[in-house]
User: Which sequence fits this backbone?
């Protein structure tokens, strides 16, 4: 059981000024109880000789209180007689539950057995029954009411809608049948007792489905979120507050941010997985919820509910009683809502829907810069890392810890470098696409990509757009455009002209993986299934940092046809759905096709870039022939690359295949060099494959 305070200066057991008021009030209740005993019996009881005061001592202390119960002998708790109820946990509790003076005294009476077990004997003697070892409603009325009419009126304090019973400030025992309801025994609940002593207490039952969130010192949160929550959670009014529905992805650090915001106001945050409360017994479930709400209201804390929509779906019959329970002053409640979850609106209670604000690029950069450890390199590019990867204030400290582990693995004597942080961020970002897509770690760079100057220039423009996209949007274009801020590219041209390699090179330049979509697993003959697969791909890709690559995209995103049947209608929906996701995707999407004319015309105006890949000219083919050979493969000096480039108008992919096959021929003959014969044979085979004529070597 955790009894460590979250805010030590607020919850400190040795805070005399706070504990003083509680002890002075316990002394008053103790003296009232003992005086009542003497009035009933007129004599001492030998069983409690050392515990009971004489009647004269009682009267003297009533006139001149000592500030603490007589049985408390601890010197450091020798409280001064002048005690004020300012800034006390007891006064906070009285104010938060709007307790009357009578209800306050009943609560204090129920505290006495927690402090000294001898009170059990005293209660039994006063009530004339050996088993009556706890105070009863009747005893409380006798102690604190002066007339019969007052007793009758104050009985309302023990009804189920009263703060004492309805909010579970008192624990009552209804297991035994009694002659009168007034004989019901009670004790102040354990949680209330621990709160008044300054303990940070959760019962084992509560710990299963809830936890106090421990905020970081000066913990980070989006300023915009604080502004949005200001009136609902942070304002000082004591009215019934609206429920906040905080909508966002599971990894958006909503709970972390709310806890830090509340901590900045010196308030705690209790997170409860309300779906775990599910119980076949609705009464038991509602009792647990009352227990939770008591903790929140008692501490002036914030309640954070996870899986609220799931709970509402599974327990529709409880929505109305739950809304009734939430209609209490001083309750601050935030429900975490997932974007994919159906909206659930509380009944009888207003709700405020808030979209979790995403960190701006500037906020992410500042966050990363301030979190970097002192022993890192000076050339860390926080701006590019912040633009490329998704992280938040909650996950970043863990990512940087992992980066330091990778640095130790790489070189224990080195400082933390960009490559270490990049590796940690990249691994954290990787999503599991299953059979829908293949993750490719790029190996080839711009030096390996031999394309025309025009294509190379367009690739550089794509890289520029990726680098400066967030900056330009933040300068006002995001508000100006409104939507369609994603960056997408269409690569079209004959097979083997370098489209896939260009996509890989771009991913390598950005420093991320290439996510190559497997269309054979995406396209599904059943209506709606293809769209579901696309949705899953884009949802995962938005969390992943990789470049999303649809190869042979015309197989999936062909021209929309005239709607003749349900199949046509749903095929058209798939194209429309892709266009929508394409425009708003936060990363880079590349589609490639051999036949641009097969794509729906709507794509033409939606792509940020459209690049045509053509057959390489003679100059490029010569460069390809010269650069394709690995260092360990020797090529005979009699091989004429100029003639090879002139003879065959083939693609880079063809040249790669020819070089590989000719090297295999050389290895088969145990020859140390690849010669003209090997290349000619391989060239002939490659041209046969693509249905081209073989040119004679003359």
Assistant:
């Amino acid at each position: 059981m955790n009894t460590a305070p979250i805010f030590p200066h607020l919850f400190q057991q040795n805070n005399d000024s706070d504990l003083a008021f509680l002890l002075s009030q316990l002394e008053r209740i103790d003296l009232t109880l003992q005086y009542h005993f003497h009035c009933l019996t007129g004599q001492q009881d030998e069983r409690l000789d050392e515990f009971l005061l004489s009647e004269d001592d009682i009267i003297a202390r009533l006139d001149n209180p000592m500030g603490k119960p007589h049985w408390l002998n601890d010197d450091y708790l020798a409280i001064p007689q002048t005690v004020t109820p300012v800034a006390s946990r007891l006064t906070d509790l009285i104010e938060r539950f709007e307790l009357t003076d009578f209800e306050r005294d009943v609560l204090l009476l129920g505290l006495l057995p927690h402090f000294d077990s001898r009170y059990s004997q005293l209660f039994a003697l006063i009530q004339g029954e050996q088993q009556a070892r706890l105070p009863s409603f009747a005893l409380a009325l006798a102690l604190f009411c002066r007339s019969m009419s007052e007793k009758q009126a104050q009985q309302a304090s023990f009804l189920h809608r009263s703060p004492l019973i309805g909010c579970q400030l008192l624990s009552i025992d209804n297991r035994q049948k009694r002659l009168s309801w007034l004989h019901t025994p009670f004790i102040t609940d354990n949680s209330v007792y621990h709160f008044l002593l300054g303990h940070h207490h959760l019962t084992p039952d509560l710990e299963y489905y809830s936890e106090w969130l421990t905020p970081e010192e000066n913990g980070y949160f989006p300023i915009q979120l604080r502004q949005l929550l200001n009136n609902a959670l942070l304002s000082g009014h004591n009215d019934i507050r609206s429920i906040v529905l905080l909508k966002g992805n599971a990894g958006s650090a909503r709970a972390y941010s709310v806890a830090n915001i509340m901590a900045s106001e010196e308030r705690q945050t209790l997170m409860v997985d309300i779906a775990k409360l599910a119980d076949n017994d609705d009464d038991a479930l509602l009792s647990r919820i009352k227990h939770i709400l008591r903790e929140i209201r008692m501490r002036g804390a914030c309640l954070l509910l996870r899986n609220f929509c799931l709970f509402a779906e599974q327990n529709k019959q409880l929505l109305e009683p739950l809304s009734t329970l939430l209609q209490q002053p001083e309750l601050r409640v935030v429900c975490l809502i997932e974007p994919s979850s159906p909206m659930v609106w509380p009944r009888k209670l207003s709700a405020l829907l808030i979209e979790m604000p995403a960190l701006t690029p500037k906020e992410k950069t500042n966050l990363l810069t301030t979190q970097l450890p002192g022993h890192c390199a000076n050339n860390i590019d926080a701006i590019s890392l912040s633009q490329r990867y998704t992280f938040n204030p909650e996950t970043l400290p863990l990512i940087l810890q992992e980066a330091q582990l990778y640095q130790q693995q790489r070189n224990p004597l080195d400082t933390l470098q960009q490559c270490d942080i990049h590796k940690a961020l990249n691994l954290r970002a990787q999503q599991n696409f299953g059979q829908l897509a293949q993750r490719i770690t790029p190996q080839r760079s711009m030096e390996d990509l031999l394309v025309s100057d025009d294509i190379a220039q367009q690739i550089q423009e794509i890289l520029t757009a990726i680098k400066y996209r967030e900056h330009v949007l933040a300068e006002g274009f995001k508000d100006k455009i409104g939507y369609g801020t994603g960056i997408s590219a269409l690569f079209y041209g004959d097979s083997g002209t370098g489209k896939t390699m260009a996509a890989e090179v771009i991913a390598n330049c950005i420093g991320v993986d290439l996510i190559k979509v497997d269309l054979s697993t995406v396209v599904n003959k059943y209506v709606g299934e293809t769209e579901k697969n696309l949705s899953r791909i884009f949802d995962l890709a938005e969390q992943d940092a990789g470049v999303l690559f649809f190869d042979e995209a015309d197989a999936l995103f062909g021209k929309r046809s005239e709607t003749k049947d349900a199949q046509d209608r749903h095929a058209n929906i798939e194209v429309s759905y892709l266009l929508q996701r394409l425009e708003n995707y936060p990363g880079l999407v590349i589609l490639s096709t051999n036949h641009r004319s097969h794509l729906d015309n709507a794509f033409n105006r939606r792509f940020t870039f459209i690049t045509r890949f053509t057959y390489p000219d003679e100059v490029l083919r010569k460069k390809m022939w010269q650069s394709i050979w690995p260092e360990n493969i020797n090529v005979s000096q009699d091989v004429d690359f100029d003639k090879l480039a002139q003879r065959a108008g083939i693609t880079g992919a063809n040249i790669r295949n020819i070089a590989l096959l000719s090297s295999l021929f050389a290895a088969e003959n145990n020859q140390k060099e690849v010669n003209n014969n090997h290349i000619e044979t391989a060239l002939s085979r490659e041209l046969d494959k693509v249905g081209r004529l073989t040119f004679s070597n003359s």
About this structure: The chain has a mean pLDDT of 84. The longest strand covers residues 487-493. The first helix runs from residue 16 to 41. The chain has five domains: 16-197, 204-355, 361-429, 446-613, 618-689.
